[in-house]
Amino acid sequence: MQTSSIHYLLEKTNFNKPVIAVYDAPAGTLFQNIIQLKKEGHVCLFAHYKQWMNGKMLKMTAAHFGCGGCGTWMFGVQGRSRQSYIEFLTDDEGLKANHKLMGDWFDQANRYEPEHDAIFVGAYDERFARFIKSITFFVNPDQLSVFVLAANYFASPTDPDPVKIKFASGCSEILPHVSFVQYPQAVIGSTDMAMRKYLPPNILAFTVNPSMYANLCRLDEKSFLNKPFLEGLKKARGGEIGG
Which of 90, 146, 161, 178 is surrounded by the fewest CB atoms within 10 Å? Predict the structure, then answer.
């Protein structure tokens, strides 16, 4: 009998990367291999992707958060006026057709406000599970197809859509968009062109909240993970879908 563990899903998808969690925790929490952002400079959160893959834990605070977008969406710290944001995102970056559309989006977008004085991003560690707000799997397209099915496995047609794709910055895709709901929720992320240069070209983020993570852990040999479609996909890829 399969026990409740994420390892079955990871094994069946040939997942060989660290599972990355976002922790809202006291600044003094004793994580290992902590790296910290400097106060000066504009640094994207995802510039630390390779360090996460090598076991490093990024520490951020409301004073040291790397870029204005991350400050806004992960700390509720807005470094410029509403109008300045709208003009920058519309005129400089060209992300919406006009100021009104951008303003409407900006006003309804959720901003995360930490419960503690630091946010850590790095490998999932069960010892600090009480601080975890989201869990991210960096997956290739074949693995993504499996994770989307996995997120839908326990969902009823009357439930909220278990998987969403949001218009958002990369940093907001891995925290605010899954942290404000108690029901199982997943977001397909790393769709922000500004941060994609830090990731391998065939990788996207699949981010879940703790409720969805618990569902993923419940998948067992009775599910599609142990059926012919997945085995057929692996055969077509030479034996596995990882890499």
Answer: 161
Q: What is the pLDDT along the chain (243 residues), one digit of tens a residue?
A: 344 689 999 999 999 999 999 999 999 999 999 998 766 568 899 999 999 999 999 999 988 888 888 888 899 888 889 999 999 999 999 999 999 999 999 999 888 989 999 999 999 999 999 999 999 999 999 999 999 999 999 999 999 999 999 898 888 899 878 888 889 999 999 999 999 999 999 999 999 999 999 999 999 999 999 999 999 999 999 999 997
Distance of alpha carbon 70 from alpha carbon 6, whole angstroms: 29
**What does pTM read for this prediction?**
0.94
200 Rama class: left (phi>0) / alpha (psi -120 to 50) / beta: beta
